[in-house]
Amino acid sequence: xxxxxxxxxxxxxxxxxxxxxxxxxxxxxxxxxxxxxxxxxxxxxxxxxxxxxxxxxxxxxxxxxxxxxxxxxxxxxxxxxxxxxxxxxxxxxxxxxxxxxxxxxxxxxxxxxxxxxxxxxxxxxxxxxxxxxxxxxxxxxxxxxxxxxxxxxxxxxxxxxxxxxxxxxxxxxxxxxxxxxxxxxxxxxxxxxxxxxxxxxxxxxxxxxxxxxxxxxxxxxxxxxxxxxxxxxxxxxxxxxxxxxxxxxxxxxxxxxxxxxxxxxxxxxxxxxxxxxxxxxxxxxxxxxxxxxxxxxxxxxxxxxxxxxxxxxxxxxxxxxxxxxxx
Length: 327
Known about the structure:
Elements: H1 33-62, H2 82-89, H3 92-123, H4 130-143, H5 147-156, H6 162-169, H7 184-194, H8 197-208, H9 212-220, H10 225-253, H11 257-262, H12 276-286, H13 290-315
Helix pairs in contact: 1-13, 3-7, 3-8, 3-10, 3-12, 4-8, 8-10, 10-13, 12-13
């Protein structure tokens, strides 16, 4: 009697099809997931449109009008490039604010980064209690551009402030620093430099990534501390320096709170602290020339964008990455 075997359903050609398990990969979206995703994204989309995109477009439109807040929308008149022409040719206060802001950024930002890097180098050691010192140095940055800090700073540099009291101990006569047109802006620079905590922490993180083998090889070659700093530390830190430079430059141009508090919102004394953003605020919310203020805001935006482009364009010549890729 011949023996017969049942066909194996797992083998091909037997006529029996094995059911295939359906799998859904991680990138596969089930039917109905799309609307749910948009629901979860809706707070961000509403914020983007209502807080950023629509106000920006409205501001761009207003920059070509004579809108002054008190004028009804039905009476807003299109003036074309008149606001921009006035800004560049007939507004001395505008150019004063540009000079003050450029002076502040060109002086305060390099000093702030130098202070941050210097303190980071000192704190990049395994000393007892070094964590406490890192926290203390970072503390001023936590206060940020607060009004309370600006008020304390103004009181420190008044005629009867703590700074003049310290000068009196060594026989140096003080002066009303915040009321002196020659020194008011310098007090704001000192305040900005004092808040070096944020870039200091970033520099510390960068220093931790520098391989110790590079320092050991340089020491074997007879390089001293200064040479090791110049030939090892700075090149390895160049991406971090670039990052801090871009951020702090933008922050420097956006300085507002301290100048507002020091001058009581006027940019004084004698427009010596009239930062660009403070002048924009005065134009829009004190003089109520919102159309002109919108034009100032867009010029400011374009200027910041151009400065950032210059940084990224020139960065390829001095920013070095560990993998050798010059981005």
